[in-house]
Design brief:
The complex is a heterodimer of chains A (190) and B (594).
Chain A lengths: L2 E8 L4 H14 L4 E4 L10 E8 L12 E6 L2 H6 L4 E10 L6 H5 L7 H8 L5 E3 L1 H8 L5 H9 L7 H11 L5 H14 L2
Helix pairs in contact in A: 1-7, 5-6, 5-8, 6-8
Chain B lengths: L2 E5 H11 L4 E4 L7 H9 L5 E4 L3 H13 L4 E6 H6 L1 H10 L5 E6 L13 H8 L3 E2 L4 H18 L3 E3 L3 H4 L1 E6 L16 H4 L3 H25 L3 E3 L4 E6 L2 H8 L4 E6 L1 E2 L3 H9 L3 E5 L5 H9 L4 E3 L14 H10 L28 H12 L29 H12 L5 E5 H17 L4 E7 L28 H7 L4 E5 L4 H13 L3 E7 L3 H6 L7 E3 L18 E4 L2 E4 L8 H5 L5 E3 L11
Parallel strand pairs in B: 2-3, 2-4, 4-5, 5-7, 6-7, 10-11, 10-13, 13-14, 15-16, 16-18, 17-18
Antiparallel strand pairs in B: 1-8, 6-12, 9-11, 19-22, 20-21
The chains are: A alpha/beta (190), B alpha/beta (594).
Chain lengths: 190, 594
């Protein structure tokens, strides 16, 4: 059986880099892995999803009701993709929400962060302020690595493989910063 | 070589190099673009890689390279094969000497496309072999081998991956890059390459004579194979076969199709071992039709019987439902429902996108116009009420002139720079020639943005980074006979509105070139503009700026606010009736200018 992860967020937030890190960590551990991701027009600020299937041997897609982990860069998106989780699945999410533009242009109602968390409660959400921790590590852009750090307690991958994968996947100049981001996220996830 | 976690298209670009490709040409289109994007970065010396102006152009270039004995690759998305269909059909008659692989990426569910057409049908129509991989690993091996197969048959080979092959990832072991530089020579043979009627009749006969050998060879290669495990069977092709493998009960037989044409005798032998057969595939019922021909009195279910959805893409869950409908599995429990009532988050033009300002100004100036548009990021102008039609590449101008010639009234067509050069140009010539009365707005953002910022002839640089002459859109339009051509900076809302008003006052074909580099490219090039901010003490909360739809504009309490997404285009400052928006750290200008 594969360990199935949905990574969700808003186009441009770095979900693809996060999926690359998980995939590279699998390769480091000599495990098979499958993934799928959103390219093309949907990347323009839209809702995006990546799947990563650790030990996956078949196709890249994860069915609703079957994911083990939902890793979300935006609290509203965590709620949007909640139904992908199996009943005992878990959520690791950023606490921040980027308000969708239609909320302003069409004056649509919007759930508060507290409401979002309450509706995610069955999945024992681990919610962290990834932006603050990323800034503490040295760059707002390191939020994806902070979230992987926070999720590292749940992932069937060793922290060493994840760190090695991060080093291979991020620009060389930012390795130290991302290492800090991972550790800060990992500490926040305990 | 060690295993790597790679995007399907990355593995496929490498497979082309392993297969000895010497010439690659394509036009960007999701989900195919990354193949040329990767080749242009990783090509060994001596390999020619180009972004061509459209798919017909790309195909003919690649065909000619193959006629010269070089292994050639043509890449396109499925609908681009329509553009290249003219040379494709006859290339099956002329054949090739160097291997030619026609990489046509299908997009079931139309994730990024205007339709869900199936490239396998082109293969059947042209009489060409077609490879349809079920996993990334297979896709890698099949594309590598396709060049040799093409040379063996003397025919182009169609390679048909789908979105979930191109844009999925897997751990892959790449092979060594082929080092077989070839000397390209065009050997004159008019009976082969000049398709006058007397020649083409012979060539058509020759193509038909090749068909039995193609079937035989594909059978020998074992691309299509079945395993008998019980009285019931599934026949599956493409990525759908990997979903089937995931959910198939142990006592159900499986026949996997990876290559066309399928040998009907092989299929018949498999089917006759079973009481019933379910066919699972995405796209058109291509395999299903073959199974129906081959299966005799065996019961066949699939798309025709409603067991498998006739459109969209499949998934393990969808295959489970199909298996349950056919009685192969118990009905799976209904999946948990998505959360209801959440605000949607559709894709949207970026903060600072120059297209948004153009659409906004068009709506201001042309209140009752028809707005035909085209294929690109700017199709998102739909959200701004400024896109009334989109059908295929280049069709904004032609649909526009058709409407202008029949319904009359104001018609304002929008088309991107790359799309204009792709197939917009003949429509412009036609509209001038036939006396249409319309405005054409070329949204010139100096790149092919939506597919990943590929260069085009207006950017003055080729796929491989060589400097080339910049095509002047203004000179081009004038040369087509357009008397009124104006270029305008879309960030200058006042100038933009004035230019459109002037265009409105003229007749005939008028062209406005709204020229500004894509904001994503500007950010990458580190072009920095100071951000804008709202003076909350001046803002009246009228929401005029919010209706502009820029993702950097938000509401904080009762007043507008500008977020960190702001790229400093300043267009919202020109729209604010109160003059509440100005550059950060500077007092706002006195009032809106528009």
């Amino acid at each position: 059986m594969s360990y199935d992860i949905m990574i969700v967020g808003v186009g441009g937030q770095g979900t693809i880099l996060a999926s690359n890190i998980l995939g590279e960590a699998c390769v480091t551990e000599g495990r098979s892995v499958r993934g799928a991701e959103t390219h093309g027009m949907a990347q323009r600020g839209g809702s995006v999803e990546c799947s990563v299937r650790i030990d996956g041997r078949f196709g890249p897609l994860i069915d609703p009701g079957s994911a083990d982990l939902l890793l979300s860069f935006d609290l509203l998106e965590a709620l949007r993709y909640r139904h992908f989780l199996k009943p005992i699945g878990r959520v690791v999410t950023n606490t921040a929400i980027i308000t969708p533009t239609p909320v302003f242009t069409q004056q649509l109602p919007m759930p508060s962060p507290a409401e979002c968390l309450a509706r995610l409660a069955p999945f024992r959400p681990l919610a962290i302020d990834a932006g603050a921790l990323a800034r503490e590590a040295g760059s707002e852009l390191a939020q994806n690595v902070v979230l992987i750090g926070a999720a590292s307690h749940l992932l069937p991958l060793s922290p060493e493989s994840l760190l090695a994968a991060i080093e291979r996947s991020v620009p060389p100049k930012t390795i130290e910063l991302n290492r800090r981001a991972f550790e800060l996220g990992r500490a926040a996830g305990t | 070589m060690a295993r790597q976690y790679l995007l399907g298209n990355e593995a496929l670009a490498h497979a082309a190099l392993e297969g000895g490709v010497g010439f690659a040409a394509g036009y960007p289109g999701t989900p195919s673009s990354e193949v040329i994007d990767l080749l242009r970065v990783e090509r060994p010396a001596g390999v020619h890689v180009e972004w061509s102006t459209n798919e017909k152009v790309a195909f003919e270039n690649a065909l000619a390279a193959a006629w010269c004995g070089v292994r050639a690759l043509f890449t396109t998305k499925h609908v681009g094969l329509n553009v290249a269909a003219d040379p494709l059909m006859t290339s099956a008659y002329t054949g090739v000497t160097g291997g030619l692989v026609v990489f046509s990426a299908d997009d079931p569910y139309a994730h990024s496309s205007q339709n869900e057409q199936d490239s396998r049908l082109y293969a059947a129509m042209a009489g060409l072999p077609c490879l349809d991989p079920t996993t990334i690993e297979e896709a890698h091996a099949l594309l590598r081998d396709a060049f040799a197969l093409s040379e063996e048959f003397g025919l182009p080979v169609i390679f048909r991956p789908t979105t979930r092959i191109c844009h999925s990832k897997a751990d892959i072991e790449l092979g060594p890059i082929a080092e077989t530089p070839r000397t390209a020579i065009f050997r004159r043979d008019p009976r082969q390459y000049v398709v006058i009627p007397a020649h083409t009749r012979v060539l058509h006969h020759r193509l038909n004579k090749k068909q039995p050998r193609i079937r035989e060879r594909l059978l020998e290669l074992g691309y299509n194979e079945g395993t008998i495990r019980g009285p019931r069977a599934v026949v599956a092709g493409g990525i759908a076969a990997s979903y089937v493998r995931e959910v198939l009960p142990d006592d159900v037989s499986l026949f996997t199709v990876r290559a066309y044409p399928v040998d009907l005798e092989q299929l018949r032998c498999f089917c006759l071992e079973h009481e019933e057969v379910l066919v699972v595939e995405e796209g058109a019922p291509v395999v299903e039709e073959q199974v129906r021909q081959a299966a005799g009195c065996v019961r066949v279910s699939g798309k025709r019987t409603g067991h498998v959805p006739a459109e969209g893409e499949l998934s393990p869950a969808a295959v489970r439902v199909a298996l349950a409908k056919a009685g192969y599995l118990d009905t799976p429990p209904a999946p948990s429902a998505p959360e209801e009532g959440l605000p949607p988050r559709p894709p949207i033009l970026c903060a600072g996108c120059p297209h948004r300002a153009v659409f906004f100004a068009m709506r201001r100036v042309f209140k009752d116009a028809v707005f035909p548009s085209d294929i690109g990021c700017y199709t998102l102008g739909l959200q701004l009420g400024a896109v009334d039609t989109t059908i295929c590449m280049g069709a904004s101008i032609t649909v526009g002139s058709g409407i202008a010639q029949t319904a009359g009234g104001d018609v304002v067509a929008t088309i991107g720079d790359s799309t204009f050069l792709h197939t917009g140009l003949p429509g412009l010539v036609n509209s001038v020639y036939n006396g249409a009365n319309m405005v054409v707005v070329i949204l010139d953002n100096r790149t092919t943005a939506m597919t990943g910022h590929q260069p085009n002839p207006t950017t003055g640089v080729t796929a491989t980074g060589e400097v080339s002459p910049k095509v002047s859109l203004e000179a081009l339009c004038r040369a087509c006979g357009v008397a009124w051509v104006e270029t305008v900076d879309p960030y200058d809302m006042t100038g933009l509105v004035a230019t459109l008003r002037e265009a409105k006052g003229q007749s005939g074909v008028r062209v406005v070139i709204a020229k500004k580099p894509c904001v994503i490219n500007e950010r990458r090039a580190k072009v920095a503009r100071p951000r804008y901010a709202v003076d909350a003490s001046v803002c009246s909360g009228c929401r005029t700026c919010l209706r502009f739809g820029c993702p950097a504009l938000a509401l904080e309490g009762e007043t507008a606010a500008i977020t960190a997404l702001c790229s400093g285009c300043g267009v919202c400052a020109a729209l604010c009736p109160q003059g509440a928006i100005g550059r950060e750290g500077r007092p706002p200008a006195k009032g809106g200018t528009v």
